[in-house]
Amino acid sequence: MDHYTPETFSLTKSVGFAVNKARNVLVGELDAALKDLGITTQQTGILMSMRGGVTQTPFELSKLLGIDTGLMTRMLDKLETRGLLQRTRSLEDRRVVNLTLTREGEKVADTLPHIVPVVLNRRLRKFSKSEFQELRRLLDKFLED
């Protein structure tokens, strides 16, 4: 089913515009909350994914977070320079780079669950539990292939 036609399409009334604007608002609020840690919202996704053991390679991170490999490399460079993670070549396959959090990276990653939910909850404060669940369901449906 087509929800838009050339005649009825309006940029500011489109789902894409609303999703992008919501993302920008959230990123701005998260970046402000993360300022003292010296990391960005995108870097938070990397650190939390690694902290939870969800990913161990740049490729896995790129796929999970929807970030192209070039940008991923630059973000990993910054995190490595800051001493938050380290890269090592796989002994089984030298083409594979494994990522591990440093002690400092683990320390920063451990603080994130105390910061990120505060920002998210503030943004979601007007949602009932059922509205929140419906938003999650609809976003999951929107992201399906």
From TrEMBL:
One of its GO terms (molecular function) is DNA-binding transcription factor activity. Transmembrane segments: none annotated. It comes from the Bacteria. The keyword Chaperone does not apply. InterPro entries: HTH_MarR-typ, WH-like_DNA-bd_sf, WH_DNA-bd_sf. PROSITE patterns: HTH_MARR_2 (PS50995). Keywords: DNA-binding, Transcription, Transcription regulation. SMART domains: HTH_MARR. It holds the Pfam family MarR. The keyword Translocase does not apply. Residues 8-144 form the HTH marR-type domain. This is MarR family transcriptional regulator. It comes from Caballeronia pedi.
